[in-house]
Amino acid sequence: MSLNIKFGVSTWLWTSPFSTDTISLFGKIRQMGFECVEIPVEDPDLINLDIVKEALTEFDLRPVICGAFGPTRDLTHDDPAFHQVSFDYINRCLDICSALGAGFLAGPMYSAVGKARLVSPELKKTEWDRAVHNLRKVCHSAQERGLQIALEPLNRFESDLVNTAADALKLVADIGHPAAKVMLDGFHMNIEEPDIERAITSCGDQLLHVQVSENYRGTPGTGQTRWEAFYRGLSAIGYQGVVSIESFTPEVKELAGAVCIWKPLAESQDRFAGDGLTFLRRWAEGI
């Protein structure tokens, strides 16, 4: 039995930050055979929504909008000013979702990426409670626009708050709002999850989006990922969303430094995307 899914790719595979000019990739992405494009929003001011929407229509691509949460976008910070910066940014991202026809905003929006420390149980509870309180506000904002949010667990080297599917599900339960859902990223799962299949099935209908690459963030199908476990998990829950390739180019030094990619992971970024899609199509057929 084949998976009833769509395939996407993040523009981060080629460039950063996403801007209106990044639509120059859309034709190539569609020609390769992708049905969806992940748009990572680092700076909303760089994006002309009318032009991007027209390009999405021209190339028949469905958008997935992902947030980028650097040090100033931290809903768990001691200083409430950081919370407001986060709210302002997230609301702009939600407006982008609405304008481009995306049903949810995805990402690790509970805290700043790279905030990974050994903290006391008391401090962790304080920051967890801040995340719950502030994300409940985000959910209200999303619901007002008819949208949802998809919360992404990160590996322990990038976050000390939400590392596994179980953590994300606990966060969703504590938020207690119907707009709060989960996304999973295979790269992080390869580090944190003892059982990928069980992690996926535990999410059930809470799972809105899936990102994949290899255990070393390379081309799908070239590493040590247990793809059969991914297949069984997604099949068991009847997942019908997008499976999207997310990795990064070493050519954009700031981005490469942030994600610790010090060398090319494929012969070319086009080859990364094309070979990855070829593998994923075979995988989705159960081969």
From TrEMBL:
Q: Which organism is it from?
A: Hufsiella ginkgonis
| InterPro entries registered for this protein in UniProt | IolE/XylAMocC-like, Xyl_isomerase-like_sf, Xyl_isomerase-like_TIM-brl
Where the record annotates domain Xylose isomerase-like TIM barrel, the positions are 28-251
**What is the protein named?**
TIM barrel protein
Give the matching Gene3D superfamilies.
Answer: Divalent-metal-dependent TIM barrel enzymes
Going by the entry's taxonomy, the superkingdom of the source organism is recorded as Bacteria
Task: Tell me the organism's taxonomic lineage.
Answer: Bacteria, Pseudomonadati, Bacteroidota, Sphingobacteriia, Sphingobacteriales
Give one Pfam family, short name only: AP_endonuc_2
SUPFAM superfamilies referenced in this protein's UniProt entry, alphabetically: Xylose isomerase-like
